[in-house]
Amino acid sequence: MAWSCRSKPVVLVLFIQLCFLFISPSLAISSGSADGYTIHGRVKIPSLGVKGFGLHGKISNIKVILNGGQSVTYLRPDGFFSFHNVPAGTHLIEVAAIGYFFSPVRVDVSARNPGKVQAALTENRRGLLEFVLEPLREEQYYEIREPFSVMSIVKSPMGLMVGFMVVVVFLMPKLVENMDPEEMRRTQEAMGNQGGLASLLPGAAGRS
Amino acid sequence: MAMSMAVRAFLLLLLFLSFTNLSVSLYEDQVGLVDWHQQYIGKVKDAVFHTQKSGRKRVVVSTEENVIASLDLRHGEIFWRHVLGSNDVVDGIDIALGKYVITLSSEGSILRAWNLPDGQMVWQSFLDGSGASKSLLTVPTNLIVNKENLILVFGRGSLHAVSGIDGEVLWTKDFAAESLEVQHIIQPVGSDAIYVLGFVGSSQFDAYQINPKNGEILKHNSAALSDGYSGEAILVSSDLLVTLDATRSKLVIISFQDGEINFQQTSISDVLGDSSGTPVLVSSKLPGVFSVKVNGAVTLIRVTVEAKLEVIDKINSVAAISDAIALSEGQQAFALVQHGDGKIHLTVKLSHDLSGDLLKESIFMDNQRGLVHKVFINSYIRTDRSNGFRALIVMEDHSLLLLQQGAIVWSREDGLASIVDVITSELPVEKEGVSVAKVEENLFEWLKGHILKLKGTLMLASADDVAAIQEMRLKSSEKSKLTRDHNGFRKLLIVLTRAGKLYALHTGYGQVVWSLLLPNLRKSECEFPTGLNIYQWQVPHHHAMDENPSILIVGRCGRGSDAPGVLSFVDAYTGTEINSMDLAHSISQVIPLPFTDSTEQRLHLLIDGNQHAYLYPRTSEAIDIFQREFSNIYWYSVETNNGIIKGHVLKSNCIQEVVDNYCLESRDIWSIVFPSDSEKIIATVTRKSKEVVHTQAKIIAAEEDLMYKYISKNLLFVATVAPKGSGAIGTATPEESWLTVYLIDTVTGRILHRMTHHGSQGPVHAVFSENWVVYHYFNLRAHRYEMSVIEIYDQSRADNKDVWKLILGKHNLTSPFSSYSRPEVVAKSQSYFFTYSVKAIDVTLTAKGITSKQLLIGTIGDQVLALDKRFLDPRRSVNPTQAEKEEGIIPLTDSLPIIPQSYVTHALRVEGLRGIMTVPAKLESTTLVFVYGVDLFFTQLAPSRTYDSLTDDFSYALLLITIVALIAAIFVTWILSEKKELREKWR
């Protein structure tokens, strides 16, 4: 970082900043020059392997975006990133990584109180003590094909057709058998009038 | 009865099961089935070769789309690629230490190093400076200070020395106070010092000698140029510069050897003889030689040791000259490219001996690629120890080609990275006589295919089988046929690129069917030609079926909006230009009218900067049709800078010296002036003219009620913000920014609805469809993005719902739907949080408008999310009633859900996303989506699932088996029942 300083307040600011730096190394904001500050941060993806290859891609394809595209930066191999020349105000940082869901982060860069970190995830309003961004969850873009199961065949329209047939062929006679003979005769008479078993089904379907 | 109950239960189960087994999203093995993705980089600005003897040979390029990419030199594929932010323009690239790609961007303030093999960013340095200047990046090969390789950067008026290993800034020397306009930074071979050369003011040349260890100035010389200078100074050798004087009539040679600055002026006419054109120095780095371009002819001039000028060659029609590259024995070579009779001639010459050519090749070149704009060369050692050369050339249409051994090794259509506008065109109908696609090649193949598919469904397929299935699906010849299909999936996407080239892409795999470099955007009298839009000019159906459809391309010659326009008419099937026109007037608006003439040519009204309207086509038939509708034509214009929206109608023919029946004057009928101190227009959106609305009625089942959508083609959505909130996020506080949205009728200028979001700001992205608008903006109080929906309903027809009135004929039909009648409308609105920044929003369109709609949201991560419109419904409430739930109303949540499976682009990124376009297919359930940016992406979507066709993975074999099984079962049961009956009878 260039520690060029031209105006007096900045020198003061830098002094405070330096003090802070010694106290806590995880500070996110430092003042760079007269017209802006620098935001440092880190993106940490736990499941990303040692070599930087994750489930979905490489760390090199992760972008960090300030204020909806005002500036875009990339990650170093250790996950650190920085934005320079950011004016004081409340900013929004987004992380675009295929395969992970990151919450946008609200970052307050205060002109009066430089070095003060105020960062919060906007999705769940959780404050960040350290400026380390972690994905809220992994994203799975594809449906997972369920392994072959009998159910999937049975559930398919064809399976249903076969199943229905099986029910009609094998269970119906059972039902008929269980009926008491008196009722059976009556039913058969009714069937005779109506034209057999076939006419019963559409009727049932119509009523349901 | 027990039996009928059982039947009923079973049928219910059947019904239930058939509903649960549906899914919207994609399986991983379905990728590439209906979608395609193409990656581009844009027009190459700079290229650096990296061709070591071992390992992969690659070329690193930076482009005008802010892309840095590493390309495979063998095939032209992308090894890696990064799209930098839009205001992070790349100024220079180079390779340092043999392993890092160094890029300088953002006007010389950001220096980054990327790992050459995989594109991982290694370090990033911010170089601070106070001035503004040219940005220069120099990576000296042999400048090692304290065991560190230095990278020299001049940016924002300061010179920085940066360590190549970790990007640490070692020292900085500020030149801003001297107001030096830097031209070159050199580190001569064998010298310890760095030279910074530049001009101060209009006529002073300065040379600084700087100590590379600490940045101290060792020596500073300056001298006044008597006649000033113009343009660039070309470095001829390590102590000589060449420039032109302010009048461009003299060549000035500046030598700065050992701190002594000497000038030597030579009149151009003395060197070149008689020449009438303006001479331009060609900025190619050639040792001891420079070149002057006059009227397209290039003269190579050598500067001798005594600083004498010596013309060595004059070459006509040179398109481009490369920089010199070092060959093995201290020799240097460069390439130049010439055009001639449909070929390009590549010549490689030695820079110290121009008489002979190292290489001379002629390569046939497609003339739709235009002229050669840039050439970069690289050498390799052939097996016979001679030098071979490969040349990377950038063409006028932004395509990139690699030439080697007299042939094009590979080419990339990188013009497609800068699409300006897109329309679609139908393909030709399949003619009779042409066999209607051989049903299937033969039965055996067909059976084999289906058995494979069945195996796949039953999860019995081996890895080879899976690959075979995948290939079979991808290679179905159906997809890439050049005829219209029954479902309307096959279409031509006609795109206009920034280079002024038209491409017709087939929706099958995105292959280029034809391309055309528009001739009237290339004319020499046309300065800064820009293609603007494409319109459907002629869509033959009914009585003009035999003609090919044609499209209208509107462009302008020049940068300002008052520049004269050009029109071009192109056949959509063949890509040939039918007609072109150079207009005398400018074009500020193009209005396609809903009328066509007898040849199905659509009438267009072109509005110029002075609010004159011009009718096209210029035929008497068109004017007849137009006269009938004269009083029904309204349009509006938005003056963003003044905050005024105006409505216009036609008045009379133009009053000019020459009578022009096709020129009409207009008059303003209304205007809305937004107060400039509190409102600034940032977005205006209308409905798409082609959208089809299925029904005007919306049934609200929960209240057993009916509402009428207020559907008007003349609605305009306008968003304004407070002037303080018009900057980027972080510049305004919630108290000083507010967002106001309007719905305006563009015929009468009536404001139908107005709403203010306090503490919100832009950018606003909006989409207007049917009777609703969805818009995306930033809420400063919550510091999150929000999306809001406004739905607008017509209340004047509320009485018509009464069935009794309808029967008795007493319903109110006397008030016809008109923009003039005062509308009684009611608007409903609701807002939700949305996680991401948005780059574009669109909505799915279907053929009849029956299918439910999805919003397509291009997010900041360059993905496209499909979000069901039901999530943006003002009737959502926290606890919907049972009736509302049945209607499909989703309980209200404060933010819109992001379901990863509903990303249309699945695991892909459409880098540099700029626009989304949807076109309906003929099949009602399906819509075609085309997403463009630096990359292109196309897919088919079925927002309500494919209810009217079988999905691709439907198993016909399983269906056949079931039918066979059922038939078999029928026979078995028949035989069984026969037997049983027989037994009954014997009993």
UniProtKB/TrEMBL annotation, chain A:
Query: How does the protein associate with the membrane?
Result: Single-pass membrane protein
Pfam families per the UniProt record, alphabetical: EMC7_beta-sandw
SUPFAM superfamilies, per database record: Starch-binding domain-like
The main location class comes to: membrane
Alphabetically sorted, this entry's keywords are: Membrane, Signal, Transmembrane, Transmembrane helix
The signal peptide, as residue positions, is 1-28
State a GO cellular component annotated for this protein: EMC complex
Fetch the InterPro entries from UniProt. Beta_sandwich_EMC7, Carb-bd-like_fold, EMC7
- Spans of biased composition, class Low complexity? 196-208
Subcellular location field: Membrane
* Membrane-spanning segments: 158-176
* Residue segments, region Disordered: 189-208
Which GO molecular function, any one, fits this protein according to its record?
carbohydrate binding
Domain ER membrane protein complex subunit 7 beta-sandwich: start-end pairs: 59-161
The similarity comment for this entry is:
Belongs to the EMC7 family.
Q: Please give the name of this protein.
A: ER membrane protein complex subunit 7 beta-sandwich domain-containing protein
Q: Which organism is it from?
A: Rubus argutus
UniProtKB/TrEMBL annotation, chain B:
Report any one BP term from Gene Ontology.
protein folding in endoplasmic reticulum
Q: Which superkingdom?
A: Eukaryota
Report the membrane topology from the UniProt record.
Single-pass type I membrane protein
Q: Where is the signal peptide?
A: 1-25
Against Pfam families, the record matches this protein to: Beta-prop_EMC1_N, EMC1_C
Gene Ontology cellular-component annotations: EMC complex
Query: Which ranges carry the EMC1 first beta-propeller domain?
Result: 26-414
What is known about its subunit structure?
Component of the ER membrane protein complex (EMC).
Source organism per UniProt: Rubus argutus
User: What are the TM regions of this chain, as residue ranges?
Assistant: 954-977
This protein is called ER membrane protein complex subunit 1
The entry assigns this protein to a family as follows:
Belongs to the EMC1 family.
Read off the SUPFAM superfamilies from this record: Quinoprotein alcohol dehydrogenase-like
Q: Which residues form the ER membrane protein complex subunit 1 C-terminal domain?
A: 769-986
Where in the cell does this protein reside?
Answer: Endoplasmic reticulum membrane
Report the principal subcellular site. endoplasmic reticulum
- Keywords recorded for this protein, A-Z: Endoplasmic reticulum, Glycoprotein, Membrane, Signal, Transmembrane, Transmembrane helix
